[in-house]
């Protein structure tokens, strides 16, 4: 695999990183450049790669044997898993330069950075050499001309960015899973993080908030106006919205709940009433619920809906009308594997099982964990004293509330470590 002498860095975002054995070890998230005291363009010293478990590490440019928009390949040597931390004289190219307001010389034409190219010299040194800048036309109906110019022809690349947009950074981040995007947001300065979060649509922001540590959730929500915050809460699963609201003072909870649509706020209000650490406090109030006269085919169609998480879609709960929580009398549940084995025209009432006692809203988390492990379940029903289904606890709910509160916070991850990852030698 050949390495081009010039690579535009935004095109590297998300590209897989492989070790010499061909095993994927992570994905590129940014490039690190070292600022120089002279007027020479910054030197690219390495890439930032995201590994499993959201750890971001530094890959020295000297360790990379091939780099292009299809793959980045590492040479031999120990892969240092110490969490990446930027040094004072370093620059994260995508994080700090994309969307930066700059001026082109000569003439001072204003524009915004959409990409930055790094280029390899004959001596093997990589530097930031060219900048792709789109002119600002002042007209909403027309995109400005795109210039690709030398680094020293652009003013405003150093210093603190002022009044940046978010379009180009969002374009780099758009294909990330919510958990990976949440991880990327944690790397941004608070003001930049809030700008990017606010630029996401309501549904996307709701998904990302659910993957962030509580303190980041609260800070991002507080940076939104209250109407927008209420709209985002409406897009969240009721249990996630309740967890987030639990981090706010009661008066602020009430304000946001009052701004939400009543049918979206009501299940959240109900979840907020339960004691923390119980089934009621961790359950989802929107599992898949169908009547006993629904067919197997209807149940399979329901669990195929793309917005359902795998844990929620793994089973159908069968109740008498109504089929919204709290439902009519709970009858039992059917796992999706059982649905696949039954004739499509059969009724759920014929295949439903109820041989495992449901949880109560007051069941404590350790008991839930023990029972789910005992019966190898991915979800359990929660019923009230009237035998009505009020929700379901899923395995992801249990994991989320069993781990330490700061498990999503990258700053709380364990410290340095190394792995040979099929390599030998020392990192540069």
Automatic annotation (TrEMBL):
Residues 413-428 have a biased composition (Low complexity). Residues 283-351, 352-410 form the CBS domain. Residues 407-428 are annotated as: Disordered. It comes from the Bacteria. Keywords: CBS domain. Pfam families: CBS, MgtE_N, SH3_actinomycetes. The keyword Transit peptide does not apply. This is CBS domain-containing protein. The lineage of its organism: Bacteria, Bacillati, Actinomycetota, Actinomycetes, Micromonosporales.
